[in-house]
Amino acid sequence: MSIISKAMTNNWISLVDKELRASHAGETGAVWIYRGALTADFLVSIVAGLWAKLTPPRLSGQEDEKQKRDDNMSSFASEHLATEKSHLDIFENHMPPFRGSYMLLLWMVAGFMTGFLPRILGRNWFFYTIYCVECFVDEHYEEQCGLLESVEPTPFDVLEKFRRCQSDEQSHRDEAYNAMTSAPTSAMKLWGNMVGKGSAIAVVMAKKI
Ligand SMILES: [Fe+2]
Ligand SMILES: [Fe+2]
């Protein structure tokens, strides 16, 4: 192998390694977002149960409506958790070997809080947060696929697997947006902005550390 082609090979190995590390960190965070949301869901249902015992019964229609909304969030989080686990499995078992981020614990905690807090704040907070996260993830996968196209053919069909995950994230984004019952408030937009900026910083850090 010539010096030039060896240098090129080393370059793309390093590029693929960084992109795999960043997306593995992202998918780890995504799994923990839904773990955080389901934990909050569990706590909210306990508090709601206690509250129902302490207060006079509400009109059954109101009660049913609230229960339906909570069930909807819970099944959304459970279904998405399963998909994010399947994405993580792709990165952990079906990709070329890469160095994982040294900061995985931080991505888990950050993910957990990103799911936990909005779920406590309510339905639209939760779905809007997922919408913002998935908008970021979709754009990030798009950027990565653009880079990977320059090193085609990628080993282990890395590009095709990134595209498959991206397509799921696009469905998650649309599903979350459609589940919202009103436009986001200014506070929600501020939070969504912070989530987007935080995700961008996390990607930069995960590529390096
Ligand atoms: Fe994912
Ligand atoms: Fe997703």
Structural notes for this entry:
This protein is mainly alpha-helical and 209 residues long. It has one domain (9-208). Helix content is 84%, strand content 0%. The chain is built from 6 helices and no strands. It is elongated, with a radius of gyration of 20 Å. 33% of the residues are buried. The model has no long low-confidence stretch (mean pLDDT 86). The protein binds fe (ii) ion (2 copies). One fe (ii) ion (FE2) is lined by residues 30, 80, 84, 134, 168-169, 172.
Question: What is the fold's blueprint, element by element?
Answer:
Layout: H1 3-54, H2 60-93, H3 104-121, H4 123-149, H5 158-179, H6 186-208
Helix pairs in contact: 1-2, 1-3, 1-4, 1-6, 2-5, 3-4, 4-5, 4-6
The protein binds fe (ii) ion (2 copies).
One fe (ii) ion binds next to helix 1, helix 2 and helix 5.
Transmembrane segments: 31-52, 102-121
Keywords: Membrane, Transmembrane, Transmembrane helix, Ubiquinone
InterPro entries: Ubq_synth_Coq7 (IPR011566)
Descriptive terms for the model:
209 residues, mainly alpha, 84% helix, elongated, binds fe (ii) ion
Briefly, what is this?
The protein is mainly alpha-helical and 209 residues long.
- CA-based shape: elongated
List the helices and strands in order.
Answer: HHHHHH
Q: Report the span from N to C terminus.
A: 31 Å
Q: Which ligands are bound? A: fe (ii) ion
Per DSSP E runs of 2 or more residues, the count of β-strands stands at: 0
Instruction: Let me know the largest β-sheet.
Output: none
Helical content class: over 70%
**Radius of gyration computed on alpha carbons:** 20 Å
Helices and strands: which structural class? mainly alpha
Mean pLDDT reading: 86
- Measured by DSSP, the beta-strand proportion falls in under 5%
Number of domains: 1
Question: Unreliable segments (pLDDT under 50, ≥5 consecutive)?
Answer: none
What's the helix count? 6
Transmembrane segments: 31-52, 102-121
GO biological process, one term: ubiquinone biosynthetic process
Keywords: Membrane, Transmembrane, Transmembrane helix, Ubiquinone
GO molecular function: 3-demethoxyubiquinol 3-hydroxylase activity
